[in-house]
Amino acid sequence: MKRIRFGLCCLFISEPIKFKTIRYSYFSKLSKQEQIEKIDKTILWNLDSLEKALLFCRNNGIGCFRITSTFLPLFTHPKIKYDIKDLPHYKEIKTKFSKNKIFSKSNNIRLTLHPDQFTVLSSPKPEVIKNSINNLMYHAYLSNLLDVDVINIHIGGAYGEKKSAIKRFEKNFRILPSDIKDKLTIENDDIIYTPSDLLPLFQKYNIPLVYDVHHHRCNPDEMSINEASVKAYRTWNREPVFHISSAKNDSLQKSHSDYIKTEDFPTIWKKMAPLTVEVEAKSKELAVLDLIKKIY
DNA sequence: AGCGGTCAAGTTGAT
DNA sequence: ATCAACTTGACCGCT
Known about the structure:
This protein is α/β, with parallel strands linked by helices and 296 residues long. It folds into two domains: 5-16 and 62-73 and 109-295, TIM Barrel (Alpha-Beta Barrel), CATH 3.20.20; 17-61 and 74-108, no CATH class. The protein contains ten helices and eight strands. Helix 3 links the parallel strand 2 (64-67) and strand 3. The mean pLDDT is 94. The structure holds a DNA duplex (15 and 15 nucleotides).
């Protein structure tokens, strides 16, 4: 029987593997030369960290890794414009990108991206839409450097009326470049958009649904977990991605707990492989390994 | 070395 | 009104 592919999200808690970023307030005080060097150094560091992360995943049976959005630091900051071609170690950077890409491919480690909360295609504010599309273009660019096949986002706010917010999302989705559209997926969230709200976007535009079962429990609709799992599964033209997490303190709290409780893992998922399940838990790689042990 | 304040960006609900 | 939560604390400046 085929096994589920489990995914680790961005960070490690126990392994000495860290990704770096740069803060604009500090960056802006540097000279032009120092700025270039700082970006160059940070990207090289992140590429080395990714290499370690992928090695850890391979050695520990973790089949998917989500890459942090700050991998190329400050890339989408409105006051900064840089091209990796202009960096002092461009050749080395390029080589490291392709090394990581080949390693993940040959070891069957899937890579995903999850743009942060500032990416909102349903906003009524043109400035927010502009920034969101810019941010998605960055993620598409990064996804090409590393062969990422999933760029997953939420719909965003409701602004008092879900229906018109979804309409704005659709309008903005339609104008996206196709290399973003081909990888973009949407996820049900814990307060506003349920799987039922999002399935029509698959029917209209073939947008796959990343089914988050914890969010579905916090923010339910008329569908059962089994029904939502099956329907979400069918929205995918590639291996589906689902999310698992456990609530902290047993309550229907939003924040994630350290580990995943066995009873929170839908039993039907075990019969659904091939399937990627990204594990969202504070204890990171320890939680993924713990869950794999519990499930298999 | 350790600690506290701060960080580009959106939106919501709890307090 | 403030703040934590969200895929994630990390980073800088001060002591």
